[in-house]
TrEMBL record, chains A, B:
<keyword id="KW-0274">FAD</keyword>
<dbReference type="InterPro" id="IPR006094">
    <property type="entry name" value="Oxid_FAD_bind_N"/>
</dbReference>
<feature type="domain" description="FAD-binding PCMH-type">
    <location>
        <begin position="19"/>
        <end position="198"/>
    </location>
</feature>
<comment type="similarity">
    <text>Belongs to the FAD-binding oxidoreductase/transferase type 4 family.</text>
</comment>
<dbReference type="InterPro" id="IPR016164">
    <property type="entry name" value="FAD-linked_Oxase-like_C"/>
</dbReference>
<dbReference type="GO" id="GO:0071949">
    <property type="term" value="F:FAD binding"/>
</dbReference>
<dbReference type="InterPro" id="IPR051264">
    <property type="entry name" value="FAD-oxidored/transferase_4"/>
</dbReference>
<comment type="function">
    <text>Catalyzes the oxidation of D-2-hydroxyglutarate (D-2-HG) to alpha-ketoglutarate. Also catalyzes the oxidation of other D-2-hydroxyacids, such as D-malate (D-MAL) and D-lactate (D-LAC). Exhibits high activities towards D-2-HG and D-MAL but a very weak activity towards D-LAC.</text>
</comment>
<dbReference type="InterPro" id="IPR036318">
    <property type="entry name" value="FAD-bd_PCMH-like_sf"/>
</dbReference>
<dbReference type="GO" id="GO:0051990">
    <property type="term" value="F:(R)-2-hydroxyglutarate dehydrogenase activity"/>
</dbReference>
<protein>
    <recommendedName>
        <fullName>D-2-hydroxyglutarate dehydrogenase, mitochondrial</fullName>
        <ecNumber>1.1.99.39</ecNumber>
    </recommendedName>
</protein>
<dbReference type="InterPro" id="IPR016167">
    <property type="entry name" value="FAD-bd_PCMH_sub1"/>
</dbReference>
<dbReference type="InterPro" id="IPR004113">
    <property type="entry name" value="FAD-bd_oxidored_4_C"/>
</dbReference>
<keyword id="KW-0285">Flavoprotein</keyword>
<dbReference type="Pfam" id="PF01565">
    <property type="entry name" value="FAD_binding_4"/>
</dbReference>
<dbReference type="GO" id="GO:0005739">
    <property type="term" value="C:mitochondrion"/>
</dbReference>
<dbReference type="InterPro" id="IPR016169">
    <property type="entry name" value="FAD-bd_PCMH_sub2"/>
</dbReference>
Length: 442, 442
C-alpha cells in the first residue's frame, strides 16, 4: 500500500510538469474503509493529504506543494454495477474514464462526458474538478449527470449519498459540495452516473471560415438547424490547427483558414440526422460563411477529424513550455482576448498564442508557448487575462478548476461574502486543513 | 410592506390546507437589500422567518408552525434580462413560472421546467425545493438549468453567485447548497436560468394499456424509438384518470384501461418527429401493448390531453382530503406499492388509492383520499410506504422536498454522518436557526 522509492517522483509532478512537490509517501488504498482509516489517522495527527486520481489536472490540484502524503485512488477501479434498463453506472472513483466508456458501450450506452485525457483521468477526479469536455453542450455538467456519490471527509466520516435514483429531494443536496471542490472537502470514493443511450447515428463536419464573426453566425445557424441532435460545437484557430497537424504529422483535410469549427450530431435516425446536417451545410455554404468543409459519417473518418481537435494540447507542448488558461467569456468578446494578448506579449520571447475550445459553452482555452518557462510571460498573461475576464463578466476557470494555480486570484473574482462562506464550509468539513492544503481557498 | 389583518391568514395556510401557522406579520420586500436588512434585524433579535414564494408546496415548507414572520417574495417579480443569443434568463426570485414561460417564449425559448402549479409558483420556490415536473426527463434538474443565483443568508450576507456563464469552476459550487434546501440556508433573491430553444414540433400520444408491465415495456420501446426527441413520459392509473375526468367534466378520449401513458415529443422537424413517433406507435400496437390510443399534433388537442394529467390533483381534492406522497422507486417495484397499500388500508375509511407520475424518472405520486382528515389513514400510509421505499433503495421525497411533513422521517433514510454534515452546514449559515425553523433538519 505504500511506495517509498523513485516511483514516488511521478506522483509529485503534475501533467504539465509545472508544479512539483516533495512527498515521500504515496498511499494506494483499495476501499472506502481504507480511506476512512487513513484520513482519521491523518486528521488526528494533523498530517496533510493530497488526493490524486489520474493526475491529469491542469492547475496543480493533484500534486503536493511540500511533503503532503499522496493518496492515490488508482487501485480503486472496480465497476460495482451497471443497470441496463436505467443506464446508471455505479463504480469506485479510481476507474479510468475510457474504461468506463468501453464498459457502458457494451450495453448500448455512453458516458455523459468525453475528455482529451480520457485514457488516464479517473472519474473521481472528473467529479472533484467538475470536468467539462466536448459533450457538455448536450448532456450538461456533472452536477446533472452524477446521481450520487460517496465521499470521506477529513475525520474519516463516510458521507453516503450514493443513490441510483434520478430524484432524491431529501435534505441538503450534499453531493454537489464534493463536485468541483477539488478534494478540499472530502475524497470521493464511489459514484453513480446517469449514462445516456449511445446514438445510432453520429456525423461530424469540419468547416473552415475566414473570421470569428462567421464562427458565431455558424453557431447560431447550427442551433436552429440541428436542434436536439447537436452533440458538439468546437472551434480551433489556425495556430491551434497547425500545432495539431505538426503533432499528428498529418494535414488537415480542408483548405487552410483562419478559423475552424467541428460540428457533431448524435441521434437515433441516420436519415433524419443527415437531412438536418445537410440543411445546415447548405445554409452556411450559401451564406458564404465557410471557405471549405468536409463531412464524416463513418467512425474512422470521424475519429481522424476529432484527433485534430484532441491533439492541440500535445502539439503545443512540443514548443517547450505551454502556458494554459481556461476561461469563460461572453461570445461578444470571446476571441478578442487572443488578439489583445498578442499585442501585450509582443516584447517577450513567446512562440505562439492561440485559442480553441467549447465556444457554444462560452469556454475558451487560451494558450501561449515559449521554449522554456519564463515568468515574465505568465506574469503578463495573468495580469491582462484575468482583468479582461472579470470586466467581461466571465469566469477565470471554466472547467479546469482552481488548484494551486489560480488560488491567489480567487479574491479578485469572488466577493468577501462568497469567500467567507467557502472558508466556513471548509472549516466544518476539514477543520485542521489536512485535505489538499494550499489549494482552492485563498 | 407589512400586513396585519385578515389577509395574513392566507399566508398562514398551505395549499393543501393541511398545515396552519399563526403568524401575525407578513413582509413583502421588493429588493435584495430589503431582504438583507430584514434578515440582519431578525438574526440579531432571534426572530424566526419563513420564506414564502407562491405557497404551492406540498410538504408544509412555506407556512409557519407558530408565529414566525412570513417573508413573501411575491413583489420581487422583475425580469432583469433575457439574452436572446444564449437563452439565459435573469430575474428576481418572486417571478411566477408561467409569466417567465410567456416571456421567454416570445423570444423562441422555453423554461426548462413545467409544473401543474405554474400559474402560481415562483421560480425562487422552484429552485429552493428543486422542483421537478414533466420536463425533467429531457432537460434535467434545476441543478443543471440554474446557471447562477443570489441568496441572502441568515445574518444578511448577500451571496452573489449570479453568473450567466454556462461554466464557472472557481471555488465551491455554492449555488447548489441553496437548490433544494427549502429556504433553511438562505433566501434566494435572484436567479439565472438556461432556457432551451422552444421546439418547432410537438406531438403527444395518449395510450391505454392493460397492466403496469406493459407500461414499462412501452417505456423501453419509447426510449429506443424516440431517442433525443422524447420530452415527457407520464403514467396515470385508472383511478387517477377518473378523478381528472370528474374534475374536468370531460371524458378521456380513448377506451377505458387500467393504465394510461402520455408520451410527448419535442423537436425541430415535424416530419422527422412524426416518423419517429409513428414508428413507436406501430411497435407498441403490433406488440399488443396497448388497448387504445390517440395522437395529438395540434396545440389545442395537446393542451386538452395534458389537462387530463394536470387535473388529477384538483380532482382528488374533490373527495375532501387528499394524502399526497411523492417517492422515488426502482421501476421493478414501482407500482407494487399501490396494490400493497390498498390491502393495508382496507379496514380504514379511505375513498381512493391511486398512483401517477413521472415513471421514466422513477418518480411516483402516491395518493389516498378520504372525506375528512383521519390520522389512522396517514399513520398507516407512512408506516408502510416509507419502509417499502427504504427497503427498495428509493427516496421518500422525489421532488416535493421535506418541509415539516417529512422531517421526522429524515433519520430513517439518511445516515448519522449525512445528518451531522447537514446540521453543521446549517450551523454556519444560520447559527440561530431563524430561517424556516422546524423544517427539513430533524
Amino acid at each position: 500500500m505504500l511506495l517509498q522509492n523513485e516511483d514516488v517522483i511521478n506522483y509529485n509532478v503534475d501533467w504539465l510538469r509545472r508544479f512539483r512537490g516533495n512527498s515521500r509517501l504515496v498511499l494506494r488504498p483499495k476501499t472506502t474503509e481504507h480511506i476512512s482509516k487513513i484520513l482519521k489517522y491523518c486528521n488526528e495527527r494533523r498530517l496533510a493529504v493530497v488526493p490524486q486520481g489520474g493526475n491529469t489536472g491542469l492547475v496543480g490540484g493533484s500534486v503536493p506543494l511540500f511533503d503532503e502524503i499522496i493518496l492515490s485512488t488508482q487501485l480503486m477501479n472496480e465497476i460495482i454495477n451497471f443497470d441496463c434498463n436505467s443506464g446508471v453506472l455505479t463504480c469506485q472513483s479510481g476507474c479510468v474514464l475510457e474504461n468506463l466508456s468501453a464498459n457502458v458501450s457494451e450495453h448500448g450506452y455512453m458516458m455523459p462526458l468525453d475528455l482529451g485525457s480520457k485514457g488516464s483521468c479517473n472519474i473521481g477526479g472528473n467529479i472533484s474538478t467538475n470536468a467539462g469536455g466536448i459533450r457538455l453542450i448536450r448532456f450538461g455538467s456533472l452536477h446533472g449527470s452524477t446521481l450520487g456519490l460517496e465521499a470521506v471527509t477529513a475525520d474519516g466520516s463516510v458521507i453516503d449519498c450514493l443513490t441510483s435514483m434520478r430524484k432524491d429531494n431529501v435534505g441538503y443536496h450534499l453531493k454537489h459540495l464534493f463536485i468541483g471542490s477539488e478534494g478540499t472537502l472530502g475524497i470521493v470514493t464511489k459514484v453513480s452516473i446517469l449514462c445516456p443511450k449511445a446514438p445510432s447515428s453520429v456525423n461530424l463536419a469540419l468547416l473552415g471560415c475566414s473570421n470569428f464573426d462567421d464562427v458565431l453566425k455558424i453557431l447560431a445557424l447550427t442551433k436552429s438547424n440541428l436542434g436536439e441532435i447537436l452533440s458538439a460545437f468546437e472551434f480551433l484557430d489556425a495556430v491551434s490547427m497547425r500545432c495539431s497537424e505538426r503533432y499528428l504529422s498529418q494535414k488537415c483535410p480542408i483548405q487552410s483558414a483562419p478559423f475552424y469549427v467541428l460540428i457533431e450530431t448524435s441521434g437515433s435516425n441516420d436519415d433524419h440526422d443527415q437531412e438536418k446536417l445537410g440543411g445546415l451545410l447548405e445554409a452556411v455554404s450559401s451564406s458564404g460563411l465557410i471557405v471549405d468543409g468536409t463531412l464524416a459519417t463513418d467512425l474512422s473518418k470521424i475519429s481522424t477529424l476529432w484527433k485534430l481537435r484532441e491533439s492541440i494540447t500535445l502539439g503545443l507542448l512540443e514548443d517547450g513550455f505551454c502556458y494554459k488558461y481556461d476561461v469563460s467569456l461572453p461570445l461578444s468578446s470571446f476571441y478578442d482576448i487572443v488578439t489583445l494578448m498578442e499585442d501585450k506579449l509582443k516584447e517577450l520571447p513567446y512562440l505562439k498564442v492561440c485559442g480553441y475550445g467549447h465556444v457554444a459553452d462560452g469556454n475558451l482555452h487560451f494558450n501561449v508557448t515559449s521554449r522554456i518557462y519564463d515568468e515574465r510571460i505568465s506574469g503578463t498573461i495573468e495580469k491582462e487575462l484575468y482583468k479582461f475576464v472579470a470586466s467581461a463578466g466571465g469566469s477565470i476557470s471554466a472547467e479546469h478548476g482552481v488548484g494551486q494555480f489560480k488560488r491567489d486570484h480567487m479574491t479578485d473574482v469572488k466577493s468577501p461574502e462568497v469567500l467567507s462562506l467557502m472558508r466556513n464550509i471548509k472549516s466544518i468539513m476539514d477543520p485542521h486543513c489536512i485535505l489538499n492544503p494550499y489549494k482552492v481557498i485563498p
